[in-house]
Amino acid sequence: MASQILPLELIDRCIGSRLWVIMKNEREFVGTLLGFDDYVNIVLEDVIEYENTAQGQKKTKLAHTLLNGSNIAIASFRL
Amino acid sequence: MTDARAEPPTEVSPPPPPPPVQLTGSPTDFLKGVVGKRVKVRLVSGVDYQGVLSCLDGFMNIALEQTEEHVNGVVTNKYGDAFIRGNNVLYISALEAL
């Protein structure tokens, strides 16, 4: 194997860029990644929260936000 | 008896100033910076609590002052002091600059 990347290293490479976070329930966040810890609690800036409900999608803007890692399912780089 | 040859007290240089608190983006630093500020805490259930963050710990247990409970954007309750158990917390968002 040429080189192996640890899972948290993948997130580390996203610091400073936009990150898309999908929660366990019908909720998503997009924001600039400032940092995270071993529990994958995530600190984001300039965040948009998307709540997917039966009535449609609700957007909420947030500034500096700490997401609790226990509800995070997926985190992905986003342009 | 004092010794005439005793040297005058040497000028004591002031202690170096403490290094500025280096805030990286980590969750711990966010929590340090946000204490005393107005915050919005959203629970997993979707209910919001807005108030002044008085203290919190590593479990995200939170003590809020001047708390307002918001359900679907409407204020439904007010508490002087409120304790929120950390397992319910979805996120903590700063309502003012850190």
TrEMBL record, chain A:
It holds the Pfam family LSM. It is found in: Nucleus. InterPro entries: LSm5, LSM_dom_sf, Sm, Sm_dom_euk/arc. PROSITE patterns: SM. Residues 6-79 form the Sm domain. Coiled coil: none annotated. Keywords: Acetylation, mRNA processing, mRNA splicing, Nucleus, Ribonucleoprotein, RNA-binding, Spliceosome. One of its GO terms (molecular function) is RNA binding. PANTHER family: U6 SNRNA-ASSOCIATED PROTEIN, U6 SNRNA-ASSOCIATED SM-LIKE PROTEIN LSM5. Belongs to the snRNP Sm proteins family. Plays a role in U6 snRNP assembly and function. Binds to the 3' end of U6 snRNA. This is LSM complex subunit LSM5.
Automatic annotation (TrEMBL), chain B:
Keywords: Cytoplasm, mRNA processing, mRNA splicing, Nucleus, Ribonucleoprotein, RNA-binding, rRNA processing, Spliceosome, tRNA processing. It is found in: Cytoplasm; Nucleus. PANTHER family: SMALL NUCLEAR RIBONUCLEOPROTEIN F SNRNP-F, U6 SNRNA-ASSOCIATED SM-LIKE PROTEIN LSM6. Residues 1-27 are annotated as: Disordered. Residues 26-98 form the Sm domain. It comes from the Eukaryota. One of its GO terms (cellular component) is U6 snRNP. InterPro entries: Lsm6/sSmF, LSM_dom_sf, Sm, Sm_dom_euk/arc. Residues 11-21 have a biased composition (Pro residues). GO terms for molecular function: RNA binding. The keyword Cytoplasm applies. SUPFAM superfamilies: Sm-like ribonucleoproteins. Gene3D superfamilies: 2.30.30.100. This is U6 snRNA-associated Sm-like protein LSm6. Component of the heptameric LSM1-LSM7 complex, which consists of LSM1, LSM2, LSM3, LSM4, LSM5, LSM6 and LSM7. Component of the heptameric LSM2-LSM8 complex, which consists of LSM2, LSM3, LSM4, LSM5, LSM6, LSM7 and LSM8. The LSm subunits form a seven-membered ring structure with a doughnut shape. Belongs to the snRNP Sm proteins family. SmF/LSm6 subfamily. Its main location: cytoplasm. It holds the Pfam family LSM. Component of LSm protein complexes, which are involved in RNA processing and may function in a chaperone-like manner, facilitating the efficient association of RNA processing factors with their substrates. Component of the cytoplasmic LSM1-LSM7 complex, which is thought to be involved in mRNA degradation by activating the decapping step in the 5'-to-3' mRNA decay pathway. Component of the nuclear LSM2-LSM8 complex, which is involved in splicing of nuclear mRNAs. The keyword Membrane does not apply. GO terms for biological process: maturation of SSU-rRNA; mRNA splicing, via spliceosome; tRNA processing.
